[in-house]
Amino acid sequence: MYGSQVEHGGLSARSAVDDKDRDKSSPKKKEDKLAKVKRNDNDEDDGRDDDAKKERYGKKDKKDKKNDKSRVATIADPKVDDDVREGHTAEAPTRTQATGGLSAEAGYITVAEAINRAKAEGGSGDVLKVDLEWDLARSVATWDVTFSAGVEYEIEATTGNLLGTKPKAPAKLAVLSPLSLNEPSAKGLLTFQEIIRKAEMN
Amino acid sequence: MEMELKRIKGRSETVYEVVLADGATILYDAATGNTINGI
Questions:
Q1: pTM for the model
Q2: Are residues A144 and A88 in the same domain?
Q3: Which residues 1-39 of B have a C-beta within 8 angstroms of A?
Q4: In the predicted model, what is the mean pLDDT of residues A142-149?
Q5: In a domain, A147, yes or no
Q6: Exposed, middle or buried, A115 (CB in 10 Å: 0-12/13-18/19+)?
Q7: Into how many domains does chain A fold?
């Protein structure tokens, strides 16, 4: 991540050198450059390329947001050291956008915390299912914890706030066994965010 | 994207069911991270 910042700096430096070299070149090239600048001015005046510009700026904004997100991840996620060692962070720009809003590096509360929050709000029975979803309407990631009593608790993944509850159809729950996340065998399970990384690599 | 951690009755493993933004679904064994086919 910091490597990429340094790389951007390096790219800027190279561009400056290139410009300098171009300035030293022949008068013909200087003329060409002036003509190019003039053409660009015309483009700005006639407004024909507004859409193209918007697209360019949009792309830049996206890139900036990505960089910001990475910086936040460095502060919030202690696993980021592991990511750097494994090279995950370096691969981030080439990942697909398949994960649609969910992040392998965001500071979500843990599954155990989400279950505890749901229980504190009245969740009872065995935990049958835990979902991590991107809520399009609220633009937040949510944990949905479903209990054998037939109620799903929706918890905001970053804050732990309860967003709501909803009943689940018994037929849907009938095909599931309790998760038993407190058993020793559950200790070795991969985390949601480790699975997100795998999905992003596909 | 949506992902579920669950155990399906009649099977011993815990699985992650991942529905990608393009609608494709992938099942992962939660213990190994390997993809599972044919549940």
A1: 0.59
A2: no
A3: 1-9, 14, 16, 18, 20-22, 24, 26, 28, 30-33
A4: 97
A5: yes
A6: buried
A7: 2
Full domain range(s) for residue A169: 111-201
Give this complex's ipTM.
0.94
Size of interface A-B (CB pairs under 8 A): 84
pLDDT in the model for residue A103: 87
Contact A97 B14 (CB under 8 A): no
A151 and A186 belong to one structural domain = yes
Write out the DSSP string of B1-39. -EEEEEEETT--SEEEEEE-TTS-EEEEETTT--EE---
- pLDDT-derived band at A44 (thresholds 50, 70, 90) equals very low
pLDDT tens profile B24-36: 899 999 999 999 9
Question: Quick check: is A106 in a domain?
Answer: no
Note whether residue A102 is domain-resident: no
DSSP codes of every residue in A9-76: HHHHHHHHHHHHHHHHS-HHHHHHHHHHHHHHHHHHHH-TTHHHHHHHHHHHHHHHHHHHHHHHHHHH
Query: Do A85 and A115 fall within a single domain?
Result: no
Q: CB B18 to CB A128 under 8 A?
A: no
The answer to whether position A27 is within a domain reads: yes
Domain end position, chosen among A51, A67, A94: A94
Return the pLDDT at A27: 53
